[in-house]
């Protein structure tokens, strides 16, 4: 699958590397495709990765991961242009009380937006395996086929995808996870994770 990552930092760099290692074709959309940072990332990522501008990456990807800081979301989506038919994974978080989900749905022109990976620290995305099982990736979106594609991409890197339903259900999950995260992080740091057991 052709996957673009707009953002090449903790989230974009980690997920891009993992998908490329599985044989997906990855393009990092970045402000400077020729920077030393991007050269190092491409060296680490291997033959299945390349870098381009944000517009080039948006045109390249069948699936596009949006992995920039909240203040850059509006600008990069404007630069990406029309995303008709593309699956846009929104892993961005805002910390000012506004909804990153609502913002991206409003700004992403014609994309099939799927909310995913935002409940997991990048350290867990780098390695989601625990002795007791796999870390859960909570996913939501209005387009079942797009959600299924993202669930598959999550499962391929070792996560346990759980489709929580629509955006209202996800807002509740985000609030609950934020509370649990805040309570347990002082004890377990960034390497712990939550798993949904079900039958
Ligand atoms: N870190 C986590 O564990 C974590 C977990 C869940 C959710 N998130 C969310 O994921 C998003 C990305 O977080 P991160 O930790 O990956 O951030 P990061 O490491 O700072 O990376 C952000 C990337 O955005 C790009 N960028 C920065 N300024 C930009 C600009 N003005 N225009 C275009 N691109 C710009 C940069 O790529 P270039 O320099 O190549 O342009 C950079 O690599 C955030 O919304 C965060 O809330 C993070």
Overview of the molecule:
The chain has 199 residues and is an alpha/beta fold. It has one domain: 3-Layer(aba) Sandwich (Rossmann fold), CATH 3.40.50. Helices cover 43% and strands 21% of the residues. It has 8 helices and 10 strands. The protein has helices at 10-21, 36-45, 54-60, 73-80, 100-107, 122-126, 144-156, 167-188, and strands at 2-6, 25-29, 49-52, 63-66, 87-90, 112-115, 129-130, 133-134, 136-141, 160-165. The chain has an 8-stranded mixed beta sheet with strand order 3-2-1-4-5-6-9-10, sandwiched between helices. A two-stranded antiparallel sheet has the order 7-8. The longest helix has 22 residues, at 167-188. It is globular and about 45 Å long. The model has no long low-confidence stretch (mean pLDDT 96). It binds NADP nicotinamide-adenine-dinucleotide phosphate. NADP nicotinamide-adenine-dinucleotide phosphate (NAP) binds next to helix 1 and helix 4. Keywords: Oxidoreductase. Pfam families: F420_oxidored (PF03807).
List keywords for this structure.
199 residues, binds NADP nicotinamide-adenine-dinucleotide phosphate, P5C_Rdtase_cat_N, oxidoreductase, NAD(P)-bd_dom_sf, eight-stranded mixed beta sheet, alpha/beta, STEAP_metalloreductase, Rossmann fold
